[in-house]
Write a structure and sequence with these properties.
Blueprint: E1 3-4, E2 6-8, E3 11-13, E4 20-24, E5 31-36, H1 40-57, H2 62-78, H3 80-91, H4 95-115, E6 122-125, E7 131-139, E8 142-146, H5 154-165, E9 169-173, H6 179-191, E10 199-201, H7 206-215, E11 221-225, H8 228-240, E12 244-248, E13 253-257, H9 263-275, E14 285-291, H10 295-306, H11 327-343, E15 346-349, E16 353-354, E17 364-365, E18 368-371, H12 378-381, E19 388-394, H13 397-404, E20 409-410, E21 412-416, H14 420-429, E22 434-437, E23 453-454, H15 466-471, E24 472-480
Parallel strand pairs: 1-5, 8-9, 8-11, 9-10, 11-12, 13-14, 13-21, 14-19, 18-19, 21-22
Antiparallel strand pairs: 2-3, 4-5, 6-7, 7-24, 15-18, 16-17, 20-23
Length: 493
């Protein structure tokens, strides 16, 4: 049986617990590997290595640090198909999506390598004579990153690459469901020549490894993507410790379809957003807010197209919807469907666990659509994280915006309309960190900031230049070459 190990201070090693847990393919129940389980002792070793390595790394010029990232990008590009196959096997998303996710990591590596020639600060005119003023970016120090199973390499790239090019060291806890991809990513860092101690992989549970990272006094920042419940707990404890956090915690994203929309285009966007990755994206389309005049026609088109979606193992190139991650997720999704039915929503299609036609050993849930949903229903407010869509009817753009903004999340939203006035009103009024016009709620590109408002996070962003604000601190520098004491706000007034 293949063993997935930790990587600490440049060495592959077992966790100190001596225990392993299985890594299972959600498409068929096959055990792919066993992953080592770590303790507080392993976290402490990783942090010690990271702290020592970071001190030297911070002195390496940023353009030189970037050269390692360029090598990472090239190696990812060479091994794109290999990593995508592993990703699909242990996570379940269809192979096209797996390839797309690896491409996202490639793009991020090239992009953040370019930032090694920038990492811009500012020069500002001083209010006093013979005095120079500027601001510069400095590294945070040791960064702890905690990543989810649904985008096991993309999200890890969003966090580790800007952290490293900024001069930090990284301690990484990947999801227990997807450690094989994490191992492959770290192997690429190793082959690219990243000095030992700068990337440390510590496998294990959130309750043990994640908690130890939050508590560790020498980890200066926790960057977390996952559930609201865990994110709030991290933020609460980190706040007590005055530890910096960056949190991305999900969404309840809506596509609005107005009466003048291209319905066929809207259907394509809804299907991709709702059922791609089996609905297991923080940007997944969970609600469809449709104008009353076109509701029935949109529903007919959606039902017709859902029948064409083939379910199965994502390694099959013809499959469009893969499994959900595990049996617990399957049961949670099914419970929400039952809640929707009890609340009075009308089930148009789906609504059941699939255990037939060769899918008996996997974790498959039928693509599901509810209609006649009201904004107050739980299925319209709570994140389900599965292939379930709620259709809500409105009579105007203003009502659609109100419904869109009524949930506690604010990650992604989309609107389909041919009216430019509606477009600009939606851009202004939709309270989400990402807004799509005539496209679905998924498809973020790495050179723009990724994140949301309200319960989606704590105001920070992954991706784009905005990510550098997470992994750096601002330092203001004043150089007085007047040869005398000059008192700001006093001597010049």
């Amino acid at each position: 049986m293949k063993k997935v190990l930790n990587y600490i201070n440049g060495e592959w090693c077992e966790g100190s617990s001596g225990k392993y847990i299985p890594v299972t393919n959600p498409a068929n129940g096959q055990v792919l590997a066993e992953v080592t389980q770590s303790t507080n002792e392993d976290v402490d070793r990783a942090v010690t290595a990271a702290k020592s390595a970071q001190k030297e790394w911070s002195l390496v010029p940023a353009p030189e640090r970037a050269e390692v990232l360029y090598k990472v990008a090239n190696l990812l590009k060479e091994r794109k198909e290999e990593i995508a196959q592993i990703l699909t096997s242990e996570m379940g998303k269809v192979i096209d999506e797996g390839r797309g996710e690896v491409q996202e990591a490639i793009d991020m590596a090239y992009y953040m390598a370019g930032e090694g020639r920038r990492l811009f600060g500012d020069t500002i005119p001083s209010e006093l004579r013979n005095k120079f003023a500027m601001s510069i970016r400095v590294p945070v120090g040791v960064v702890g990153i905690i990543t989810p199973w649904n985008f096991p390499i993309a999200i890890a790239s969003w966090k580790s690459l800007p952290a490293l090019v900024s001069g930090n060291a990284v301690v990484w806890k990947p999801a227990t469901e997807t450690p094989m991809v994490a191992q492959e990513f770290v192997k690429i860092y190793e082959e690219a020549g990243l000095p030992k101690g700068l990337i440390n992989l510590v496998n294990g549970s959130g309750s043990v490894v994640g908690s130890a990272m939050v508590e560790h006094p020498q980890i200066n920042l926790i960057s977390f993507t996952g559930s609201n419940e865990v994110g709030k707990a991290i933020n609460g404890r980190a706040g007590e410790l005055l530890k910096k956090t960056s949190l991305e915690m999900g969404g309840k994203n809506a596509v609005t379809v107005l009466e003048d929309a291209d319905l066929d285009l809207a259907v394509e966007g809804i299907l991709w957003g709702a059922f791609g990755t089996a609905g297991q994206r923080c940007t997944a389309t969970s609600r469809v807010i449709v104008h009353n005049e076109i509701k029935v026609e949109l529903e007919k088109k959606l039902i017709s197209r859902i029948k064409e979606l083939k379910m199965g193992d994502g390694l099959d190139e013809t499959v469009k919807v893969g499994p959900v991650i595990n049996s617990a997720a399957l049961e949670r999704i099914d419970e929400y469907v039952k809640i929707g039915q009890k609340e009075g929503a009308k089930l148009l299609t789906g609504g059941q666990i699939i255990k037939e036609n060769g899918l008996e050993k996997g974790n498959y849930y039928a693509p599901t659509i509810f209609t006649d949903v009201t904004p107050e229903m739980r299925i319209a407010k709570e994140e389900i994280f599965g292939p379930v869509v709620s259709i809500i009817t409105v009579n105007s753009l203003e009502e659609a915006v109100e419904v869109n903004n009524s949930v506690e999340f604010g990650l992604s939203s989309a609107i389909y309309t041919a009216n430019v006035n509606n477009v600009f009103a939606a851009m202004r009024d939709l309270d989400t960190g990402i807004v799509y016009i005539n496209a679905g709620t998924t498809g973020a590109e790495i050179h723009l900031p990724f994140g949301g408002t309200k319960g989606t996070g704590n105001g920070h962003r992954d991706s784009g230049v905005a990510a550098l604000d997470v992994y750096t601190e601002w330092k203001a520098v004043y150089v007085d070459f007047s040869g005398k004491l000059q008192r700001a706000q006093i001597d010049n007034y």
